[in-house]
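INTERNAL AUDIT FORM
Audit reference: QA-55
Scope: verify that the stored structure record matches its stored sequence.
Auditor: D.O.
Record contents follow.
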Amino acid sequence: MQLVPVLEIRHGKCVHTEPKNSFANQVVKEDAFEVVKRWSEKGVSRLHIVDVDAIESGEPENVDLIGKIKKAFPSIELQVLGGIKCVESAYIWADIGADFLVLNGRAIRRRNLLDDICVEFPNRVLVELDCQKGLVGTRSGEPAYELLSLARQLEDDGVVGLVVTEIPEKGGSGGANLIDIVEISRNVEMPVYANSRIEKLADLKKILESHTEKLSGLLIGKALHNGLCLSEANDLVQQYHAN
């Protein structure tokens, strides 16, 4: 299992957005490139990049910057989310070096597009899903999908990985609860990455103690800008893998 830092980019700057509200953001670093350089020096091998501008506009935006990052750090795998609403948009990210293309939850309602992108980019498509109590919601009035069943369908369709967020119930704290994500990671062959909402090392320790050995990775975002030491977090992961 690896730790995957989340880099959210808006107007070329590294930001932190509030969950499901890309318009509410805080600039945490003026130079996003420098953030990646620092993470690279700590041994990061994979990044989850969110083009916040692309989510807002519906098409790739921070293309030059993300291409610059890939060129400078070719050994880091980039999985890029944002603005993939057609095959042509997917080609834009692929052409600047994105290793994996991340489609958001709308992809499950646009299966023809998902199929087309999987055909054009075999072994490179991930899907991001939000779940609550084992269900993946859709638009109001539409039936929800059962998470494990949907994961298996997506795997059959050619998706090669999932990025999953467990949404806490109203009044719940969420945090390090990954019960449903761990369950699907045990029942599909493709990699599953959990949006972990880790805030401190104690949260990471709790996750590592909860039989998460099948998880491929944990996404970490805000905590890395709020004082969590990436080196210490990686050391903790290695410690549990060695036991």
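Auditor finding: record pair retrieved intact. The radius of gyration is 17 Å.
Action required: none
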